[in-house]
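User:
Care to share a sequence and structure tokens?

Assistant:
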Amino acid sequence: MIPSIVVCVSAVSCLLVAEWADSRVAKAAAKMSAASAFLGMALASGATESTYGQILLAGLALCWLGDACLLSPGQSTGFRVGIGAFLFAHLAYAIAFFRLGIDPVGFLVGALVIGVLAATALRWLRPQVPNDFRAAVTSYVGVISIMIVASIGAVAAGAPMILAIGAIVFGISDLFVARERFVKSAFVNSALGLPAYFGAQLLLAYSVRLTGAC
């Protein structure tokens, strides 16, 4: 597991330098190295040995695919495919969290809080999003909200806190992706969003070790 962390931290550091220098080749190499590291973390944590781990690993693999697709600049076809890959990844995570068991009260409270935040995010984004992307973005926000709420419900039922932390930080990182693509392109989106994203993925990958044979 430690090698995966070292590789991911090193790759993300290189990725930020490449973003600053606007080197597409270096960005691609560093980003996919970091993405491969969170897959390595899941495998090292025993992802193939439990149903929870297998479902989560499928989600991580979809995120790896999404990372590759989002290397495409602007709002291209690759970006659309990337959104789809991440959408299904969030669904996989939500299914994995439900597999652990959900506390109804925790789920309801989480749904109320996250629902308000999701609606606020959509109001912020909607004027900036092209018409042909609005349905996809709305669906994406809905799915990631379900994933976060599921993680909160699972933690309330006794799952490790790392699930909710990873899911929430993942959601925060997505806001920076949306800001970069639709609102304002700036290095700060990468500087804050990329460490949050890869950190969240490492946390979720490591959660496999903490959940036992679920």
